[in-house]
Amino acid sequence: LAPLALVPFFQLSTVYFAIKRKKWLDLILVVTFNIRVCLMYVPLMGFKTFMIYYWLSRYLESSWFIWVSQMNHIPMNIDYDKNKDWVSTQLHATCNVNQSVFNDWFTGHLNFQIEH
């Protein structure tokens, strides 16, 4: 259940931090985006179908993004004590993932993270 709870949590966190940090333009943009999406899709799908579509697509998008972005960064060790330059530190903190037809398609070629 935790991954399912993350998407609404991050949605609410965005609104919370916009209010807390007094980022009123960001808050207005988030709220108006969600209103526009509702106004566009609810008449076409009905509220219940829209909610299923909206949250399922957000969940799939979030899961895909985590897989793609983290598979290049998590396996690497970062040494802060080495006093290396920025480029060397970035190269040590990331890695490429083996090339395959699936990896190329699934990641949109972000499996070549060093080159990216």
TrEMBL record:
Q: Which GO terms describe its molecular function?
A: oxidoreductase activity, acting on paired donors, with oxidation of a pair of donors resulting in the reduction of molecular oxygen to two molecules of water
Name a Pfam family for this protein. Answer: FA_desaturase
Please list the coiled coil stretches.
none
Highest taxon in the source lineage:
Eukaryota
Choose one Gene Ontology CC annotation of this protein and give it: membrane
State the name under which the record lists this protein: FADS1 desaturase
Domain Fatty acid desaturase residue range list: 9-116
The species this protein was found in: Cardinalis cardinalis (Northern cardinal)
InterPro entries to which the protein is assigned, alphabetical: FA_desaturase_dom (IPR005804), Fatty_acid_desaturase (IPR012171)
Keyword field contains Disulfide bond: no
Example GO biological process: fatty acid biosynthetic process
Taxonomic lineage is:
Eukaryota, Metazoa, Chordata, Craniata, Vertebrata
Key words, A-Z: Fatty acid biosynthesis, Fatty acid metabolism, Lipid biosynthesis, Lipid metabolism
